[in-house]
Specification:
pyridoxal phosphate; binds pyridoxal-5'-phosphate; binds iron/sulfur cluster; single chain; alpha/beta; 2 domains; TIM Barrel; 321 residues; nine-stranded mixed β-sheet
Length: 321
Amino acid sequence: MSTWQSQLSDGFRSASELLAFLQLPAAGMSAAAQADFATRVPRHFAALMTPGDLDDPLLRQVLPIGDETLQVPGFSDDPLAEQQNAAPGVLHKYGSRALLILRGGCAVNCRYCFRRAFPYAELSWSARTQRDALGYLRADAGINEVILSGGDPLMASDEAIADLVGELAGIDHITRVRVHSRLPVVMPDRLTPQLHQALTGTRLKPVLMLHANHPREISRALHERLQPFVRDLPVFNQAVLLRGVNDDATTLAALSEALFNSRIQPYYLFLLDRVRGAAHFEVPEAEAKVVYRDLQSRLPGFLVPRLAREIPDKPNKTLVL
Ligand SMILES: *Cc1c(COP(=O)(O)O)cnc(C)c1O
Ligand code: SF4
């Protein structure tokens, strides 16, 4: 079996290759959009798409198209005002939780990601960044949870994660470590026994937050690889409400059911961050509320994610209903 590292280098890196794999004409993509934000799609994720369907909801999330080059008022390069950090690689917007940008890159480039216009890729997490970040965390006893994020934090090696979690466990006021990652969804083999050990091997209570937007993303392989994790730690999902991907109650209800079947708890359903190039994914708030009420009528309360958005300068995510 191939390692996740070899799968990373083996993924699709151009839209025309991906379209050929799906038996679709190359005319479906935009070279200008691809030049603005590179194409990156692991083979596992591509294999979940339906060949011959240009409107496939998984393909739509990763295919560079001409709509991205439109200038739309209100859509900017830094919609979350995140370009000023507490310390290099540290975002501390919510009092008790500090977020570390452990790796700038991702295994998949989602076209709606706020990272597309953000210089995260230039960030490198060196020994010095880690020492300074730990110093920042040590100095603020109000922080009890550290979120490993990015980019995608699981781009880091299991050894690097084990080392960092071990250091965090040495800071008394920290009680939880949370990992925000889409990597297991697009490449389930990232869920290694060593990662499980790194997350569960200290006194810290681990939490895993996945990012899946469509029921078909909850694959058999993800289900199987997750089992040791769901046995030992809470696993949640956050999704983004996306036009043409999951903007109807039937799809969202199926997503919640699929998550439940793999013992993943739905957590947030986010409205889109208004990043330049992603306007065609937006579901307006009024419509989102209609879809959400419909979703609520179809599910037990514990499978309804919280509809929320991020507003810069607020002390928490803002609930929409
Ligand atoms: C979203 C976010 C968090 C986590 O918020 P929760 O509501 O606890 O899930 C923490 N820090 C930053 C900077 C965030 O953007
Ligand atoms: S940060 Fe998340 S949403 Fe953005 S490109 Fe990476 S995996 Fe996709």
